[in-house]
Specification:
Belongs to the TMEM8 family. It holds the Pfam family DUF3522. This is TMM8B protein. By secondary structure, this protein is of the alpha+beta class. The protein has 4 domains: 151 residues, Jelly Rolls; 110 residues, Jelly Rolls (Sandwich); 134 residues, Jelly Rolls, CATH 2.60.120.680; 198 residues, Rhopdopsin 7-helix transmembrane proteins (Up-down Bundle), CATH 1.20.1070. It is built from 10 helices and 35 strands. Strands 1, 2, 4, 5, 8 and 10 form a 6-stranded antiparallel sheet that branches. Strand 32 and strand 33 form a beta hairpin. Helix 3 runs antiparallel to helix 4 and helix 4 packs parallel to helix 6.
């Protein structure tokens, strides 16, 4: 056949250590139909400070692959919530081959067409809290690239139509495909009139959705006569691929005929007609062309099973007497993103008769619905059982309904199908099922009532069970509970939701309490972070006593908002917020930086020049507000104002030292008992904040930071300024609306009037 190669790539993204699914990087690809091989080229490289990160440590990178929906991963081995089904995925770990770059390759032969998702992350780190901008961070960038090779002009088989083929000596195989419409209970592929050098040296392989593999359903035509391969309960609205492969070492040409028979579920004794003039009557794409296997390119998507207005029959796995039951549709009601309810007509109470199953279909839209959680709930009305020991079984299967015809063993699996089993009875009347990141398409729920006897389960007689059925799509499992937050995430144009847990809780729904904080621990951490701000009371008292009223107001502002910000910032349930979180955070950061600013400006002793000091206070408040609005966690938000204020203080102290011709401050006691201890305490606080603080020790290290910073202010704040010894102008005594200026020396005629005017005294 003719091969076409397609190439897809994605923009490199920075990987993060794994904490929850919200911290992974998700990549979305689409693999076209008729793809025979897909190769993912996984490129990873390091960066540090805009250059190659040769000095960065090697950290393993884990990549997950899944078709149809994002992978449900659990690298921390936490517990999933109850009644949660975990779909499987494939994981690959990349190791470094070069100092700053590595490449991995992942091949998939005959991949399933449609959406594919890649998820990548770094290992979990120690949770260190680093100051932004303190040092150049090592970044690990990941870029996946996809190369697909697909076949064109694959021969199409029509049901009931015979296709003749001659396989030349240099050919190994012939590939065909047939479209299986809805309500098909069986696909039968048969090789006829096979003639070769050694009988019929052919292998017959059949697979749904993609070309067959070595482990697909296979039949050796040498050992089976006639050479027939049947597929019961095939996937509806999908292509089935038929591969006729020649045995190795067989000389000459092999000729044969291939035919396909599709059994209609509503008429199990009849095959579908061999040819219909209208492809719409068979729910087949309109681009088939003429019979005989002409080329078929990219076919339009199959129609939905809900497009029909008539009851839809479903097959039963009993080959002796296949029967069909109507499928009841559901009404889709979209409330919000990943918030969809599926209502049943004349529901939600469903009657399950004793002689036949009740079947329902739930349609999930492609791409849009795969990023949430599919929830299913069954509740049995015990009063409807009339005292009988009735058990209602439910099978949830993807793309084809399944009800077992065997009464002794109740299962939702076959050789080619795997579903989810639910059951309710008088003892356990409630059953739930949650499927995170479900595959899109049609999901079929089959309900059947059986009575328990000594010999197993048997059909009930004259007992119609009543079941309350609820099906809905939600963003997260139980909205992540009280110890988690459900986040709506986006990668390019794909939306998905994930839980971000707090207070030590883990798991897909924040239900794993193996490392959870107790209530006492949460209360203790909250009290420590809040009450440690009381240490600002002594600096406030010192500032008021020294007549630093503006500084005292700033310290009170900082103490108030720091207390209530940390009361609102707690991850657990011990939380108290008096304002919006963003407002409290801004005021706390602003108060902290303003406390440093006004303390250093006060140490500069600019009080005699009152106008200049006020300008500096106002300028600092405006610049700090602007900086915090730009980036609240940046290093220069704290370092920049502090260095600028220290520069002003250094200039002022240097000027006084030069003018007085001795060191300022002049006394050694001021240096030994105030300045040096205060500077050491402040330096220790900064070191703890920048290098020691982690997520585990945050509550007590940050409390120590509060104590040290407030204590350093008490040491560094200068004493009250002494009044100046210079005499000011004499006070003028006011009389009754006028003043009489008398120059005593001029009156006595002792000095020249121009000189004596400087000693004039105004009296009333």
């Amino acid at each position: 056949g003719l091969f076409v190669t397609d190439y897809f790539t994605r923009t490199p993204r920075k990987l993060s250590p794994f904490r929850s699914f919200a911290s992974i990087e998700l990549f979305h690809f689409h693999i076209p139909e008729d793809t025979v091989v897909a190769v993912w080229n996984l490129i990873t490289f390091k960066e540090q400070g805009g250059t190659f990160g040769d000095q960065c440590p090697d950290r393993s990178i884990t990549v997950y692959f899944r078709s149809g929906a994002p992978s449900v991963i659990n690298p921390l081995h936490t517990h999933f919530p109850r009644d949660t089904a975990v779909p499987g995925s494939f994981a690959l770990t990349l190791t470094w081959t070069l100092p700053n770059r590595t490449t991995g390759v992942f091949n998939v032969t005959s991949p399933l067409p449609g959406d594919w998702f890649l998820a990548a992350h770094l290992p979990k780190d120690e949770g260190k809290i680093s100051v932004k901008g303190l040092y150049e961070e090592c970044q690990y960038l990941f870029q996946p690239q996809l190369i697909v090779q697909r076949l064109v002009n694959i021969a199409v088989l029509y049901p009931g139509h015979v296709t003749e083929q001659s396989m030349a000596p240099h050919n190994r195989s012939c590939l065909y495909k047939v479209f299986v419409p809805s309500y098909t209970s069986r696909v039968l592929v048969e090789v006829l009139r096979c003639r070769g050098a050694e009988g019929c040296p052919l292998w017959l392989r059949v697979r749904a959705k993609a070309p067959p593999l070595h482990n697909s359903t296979t039949l050796d035509c040498r050992e089976h006569t006639p050479c027939q391969l049947a597929q019961d309960l095939p996937f509806w609205q999908h292509w089935y691929y038929v591969l006729v492969e020649k045995h190795p070492g067989v000389p000459g040409t092999v000729s044969f005929q291939v035919t396909v028979q599709l059994t209609d579920c509503s008429r199990p004794s009849l095959a579908r007609p061999p040819f219909l003039p209208s492809s719409a009557s068979m729910n087949m794409p309109h681009s088939f062309g003429s019979a005989g296997g002409l080329a078929l390119g990219d076919s339009p998507p199959p129609t939905s099973p809900n497009d029909t207005k008539h009851p839809v029959p479903i097959p039963v796995t009993s080959h002796a007497g296949e029967r069909c039951w109507p499928v009841r549709p559901t009404l889709r009601n979209e409330l919000d993103t990943f918030s969809v309810h599926f209502y049943i007509f004349f529901g939600p109470n469903v009657s399950v008769p004793p002689d036949r199953p009740a079947v329902f279909v739930i349609n999930l839209l492609p791409v849009l619905d795969s990023g949430g959680v599919l929830n299913l709930e069954l509740r049995l009305n015990v009063s409807s059982l009339c005292g009988e020991n009735v058990t209602v079984f439910g099978c949830l299967n993807h793309e084809v309904p399944l009800t077992s015809g065997d009464n002794t063993s109740v299962t939702c699996e076959t050789e080619s199908l795997a579903g989810f089993l639910l059951s309710v009875n008088a003892t356990a009347s409630l059953s739930r099922l949650r499927i995170p990141y479900p595959q899109t398409g049609s999901w079929y729920l089959s309900l059947r009532s059986l009575c328990a006897t000594e010999h197993g389960f048997e059909p009930c007689s004259n007992v119609t069970a009543e079941v309350y059925l609820r099906a809905y799509l939600s963003p997260c499992i139980n909205d992540c509970g009280i110890y988690g937050q459900c986040k709506l995430l986006r990668t390019n144009n794909y939306l998905y939701a994930a839980c971000e847990c707090k207070a030590g809780w883990n798991g897909w729904g924040c239900t794993d309490n193996a490392e959870a904080f107790s209530y006492g621990f949460q209360l203790l951490s909250t009290l420590l972070l809040c009450l440690s701000n009381v240490m600002f009371v002594p600096p406030v008292a010192i500032a008021v006593r020294s007549h630093y009223l503006l500084e005292a107001a700033v310290y009170i502002f900082t103490m108030f908002f720091s207390t209530f910000y940390h009361a609102c910032d707690q991850p657990g349930i011990v939380v108290f917020c008096i304002m919006e979180y963003d407002v409290l955070q801004f005021c706390d950061f602003l108060g902290s930086l303003m406390s440093v600013w006004v303390t250093v400006i006060a140490m500069a002793r600019l009080q005699p020049v009152v106008k200049q000091a006020s300008v500096l206070y106002l300028l600092g408040a405006m610049l700090l507000s602007m900086a915090l609005q730009m980036d609240r966690h940046g290093l220069w938000n704290l370092l920049g104002p502090s260095l600028f204020a220290l520069g002003i203080m250094a200039v002022a102290w240097t000027a006084r030292t030069i003018r007085r011709r001795h060191c300022y401050p002049p006394t050694w006691k001021r240096w030994a008992f105030y300045l040096c201890p205060g500077a050491l305490i402040a330096a220790a606080a900064v070191l703890l904040y920048a290098f020691v603080e982690t997520e585990e020790n945050y509550f007590y290290i940050h409390s120590i930071w509060h104590l040290l910073i407030a204590g350093s202010v008490g040491f560094l704040l200068p004493p009250r300024a002494k009044p100046s010894r210079r005499l000011g102008p004499l006070p003028r005594r006011k009389g009754c609306g006028y003043q009489l200026c008398v120059n005593e020396q001029e009156e006595l005629g002792l000095v020249d009037p121009a000189v004596a005017s400087i000693n004039s005294i105004c009296t009333s």
